[in-house]
Amino acid sequence: MGQYTTAITVLGATGSIGLNTLDVIRRHPEEFSVFALTAHRQIDKLAQLCQQFMPQYAVVADEIAARQLQQQLQHLQVTRTQVLFGQEALCEVSQASEVDGVMVAIVGAAALLPALSAAKAGKTIYLANKETLVMAGALFMQTIQQSGARLLPVDSEHNAIFQTLPENYNGQLNEAGVASLILTASGGPFLHTPVADFAAITPEQAIKHPNWHMGQKISVDSASMMNKGLELIEAHWLFNAPANQLEVIIHPQSIIHSMVRYIDGSVLAQLGEADMRIPIAYCMGLRHRMHSGAEPLDFTANPQLTFLPPDFERFPCLKLAYDVLHSDNNAASCILNAANEVAVAAFLNHQLRFTDLSVLVDFCLQKLSQQQAASIDELMQLDARVRTIAQEWINKQVN
Ligand code: NDP
Q1: Would 111 disulfide with which of 129, 222, 246, 316, CB 3.0-4.6 Å?
Q2: Considering the entire predicted model, what is its pTM?
Q3: C-alpha to C-alpha distance for 123 and 151, rounded to whole angstroms
Q4: What is the full DSSP assignment across 324-349?
Q5: 15 in ligand 1 pocket by Cβ < 6 Å?
Q6: Cα-flanking dihedrals φ and ψ of residue 145, to 5°?
Q7: Cα(18) to centroid(ligand 1), Å
Q8: Contact, 51 vs 26, CB < 8 A?
């Protein structure tokens, strides 16, 4: 009888998290098999991954991309992989009965529906994408609870908190003796840049993160510290933590990945190299330690660990996210997320200045401040509306 392996779907396989996930899988062939791989535009890369991992399905954005991939797979003599396309196919490979675990590593709101499909189907979900919880935290967590799906946080800060909370943590900070959760932030590439120079920051400068190699969107979010703001909202939903029990501290070395402050004065931290394979392996091992490929932490190479309070004037996006968290309005975090996605795309496209990122997000939050959205349809409609309003604002700036 063959040994049972955990069948994995990797949503966003061609991205930074997707490739790190596949690297961990490659190290443990006896534990994992790949059921499906998905990508959006990078067809060549996906074809190569199919050749290496032989998934049953590969999913791309549309029919044209599917035809291109099909041709490449024929050329590579990969006959096992069936090519699918579109949003529905992403949902299908996330909920298929053959799948045990789904790595959600698509960037942005595009991950929401496939992540919800995996949640509804009761899968083990390794959640890297943070926009899912920011956009629809209440609904996603409710779906997880109803279906009995298992949710494991891949984002390094949340994974660090997950590692340092008691293993039987039941969503009640007070019962666990927790005073607060402390998210560490590197402060990104512009921690010491004069604020007067911020308007001239280019996309090329913004995507050069000092400690992590990541996709473009999250790199820009890290530079504006919107990333930490999204993470605050993510932590709120993952750990049932109210805004007043969530702290942010800047720690430029990115050695401590986050901490839990207990009421007795103890603080527990998780440390390691800045390597996403560590949290990925911890999730995929279902909390059992396994080799991730990460280098051991060399303390003598990092003799100084330093800390600074966050500066809201320098990083107004972080302040906006805190305000949204305090407002406790599902619609507001959906607006924040959609406006930020449009703003970052326009900045990467040289249509907006770095300083416009927070201005545009704030504009959308103000304009739609009376909005409510509870169901998935309402959230999707609101997301689309924000994108239209944000795009109109950008068009006015450009013309
Ligand atoms: P990348 O940009 O490197 O990769 C994104 C992946 O999503 C790619 O496979 C891309 O396909 C795919 N994709 C992009 N747009 C769409 C779409 N509209 N529909 C379907 N698939 C799409 O991102 P990262 O790996 O850096 O980040 C992924 C997620 O994980 C983000 O939400 C990020 O915030 C989160 N995260 C990332 C960390 C990191 O270290 N990188 C750390 C913690 C969280 P293609 O390549 O073909 O375009």
Answers
A1: 129
A2: 0.97
A3: 8
A4: HHHHT-HHHHHHHHHHHHHHHHHHHT
A5: yes
A6: -65, -40
A7: 8
A8: no
Encoded tokens for 40: 């959006």
In sign, the C-alpha dihedral spanning 349, 350, 351, 355 is positive
Give, for all 399 residues of the chain, the pLDDT tens digit: 446 899 999 999 999 999 999 999 999 999 999 999 999 999 999 999 999 999 999 999 999 999 999 999 999 999 999 999 999 999 999 999 999 999 999 999 999 999 999 999 999 999 999 999 999 999 999 999 999 999 999 999 999 999 999 999 999 999 999 999 999 999 999 999 999 999 999 999 999 988 888 999 999 999 999 999 999 999 999 999 999 999 999 999 999 999 999 999 999 999 999 999 999 999 999 999 999 999 999 999 988 999 999 999 999 999 999 999 999 788 999 999 999 999 999 999 999 999 999 999 999 999 999 999 989 999 999 999 999 999 999 999 887
Is the shortest distance between the CB of 65 and ligand 1 below 6 Å? no
